[in-house]
Amino acid sequence: MFNTVKVGDVLPSLTTDYLVLKSIGEGVYGEVVECLDIKNQKIVAVKILKYPNSHRNAKHELSFLKIISPLNHKNLVKFFERFKYKRQECLVFEMLYRNLHYFIICSPKRIPLSKIRAIAKQLFLALKALSAVGVIHTDIKPDNIMLKNWFDMRIKLIDFGVAIRDADVLVGDKVQPIGFRAPEILLGLPYTNAIDMWGVGCVLANLYLRFFLFNAHTDYEMVTL
């Protein structure tokens, strides 16, 4: 059972206490809440993973955060610490503004190519950094690309919950979300980190067109589009 935290709850870790300010969003694997780090007086995002798979999911994501954190890359989310709250694993990250999905919805008209170009460059740099350490994100989509603020188009790639090592690739893996799934995944062929570049291409098309390039719900629909 998933015990959702409430506004006003205090989540204690070994280094500080986190005061829950509001819920940012909830998904299949857990909930993200905005918190105040009471000791350091800064706002952070705490990802609370759902029990009973909380430990396994946290262990997987943490293994990749340990790989990317030393890079200190400006386009990869910054991770602070891990702790437990009521048997649920909690991961603490820097607080970012909004994701690209929100940005697309809230943009009153077509997004200028200059802004799309700026986002593209940063995503390419993020993929280059991941490639250097042998990591495939596998879940690149507008929801997992965050703006640092509304003004200068600085972005960060988040959510390494389903990332894999390029050495651990298995033919036939069903990775990537539908609509952002590369042809080699759809066809069950051998794949590489190039699938992340396909995902970026779909995101950039989404930014320009303001709708999904492949609006599908199944692999069959993807293949027949």
From TrEMBL:
Domain of life, per lineage: Eukaryota
UniProt xrefs under Pfam families: Pkinase (PF00069)
Protein's UniProt keywords contain Transferase: yes
Entry-linked InterPro entries: Kinase-like_dom_sf (IPR011009), Prot_kinase_dom (IPR000719), Protein_kinase_ATP_BS (IPR017441), Ser/Thr_kinase_AS (IPR008271), Ser_Thr_dual-spec_kinase (IPR050494)
One GO location term (cellular component): PML body
SUPFAM superfamilies linked to this entry: Protein kinase-like (PK-like) (SSF56112)
GO molecular function annotations of the record: ATP binding; DNA binding; protein serine/threonine kinase activity; protein tyrosine kinase activity; SMAD binding; transcription coactivator activity; transcription corepressor activity
Biological process (GO), any one: smoothened signaling pathway
Entry protein name: Homeodomain-interacting protein kinase 1
Residues of the Protein kinase domain: 18-225
Keywords, in A-Z order: ATP-binding, DNA-binding, Homeobox, Kinase, Nucleotide-binding, Serine/threonine-protein kinase, Transferase
Family membership noted in the UniProt record: Belongs to the protein kinase superfamily.
Binding site for ATP: 47
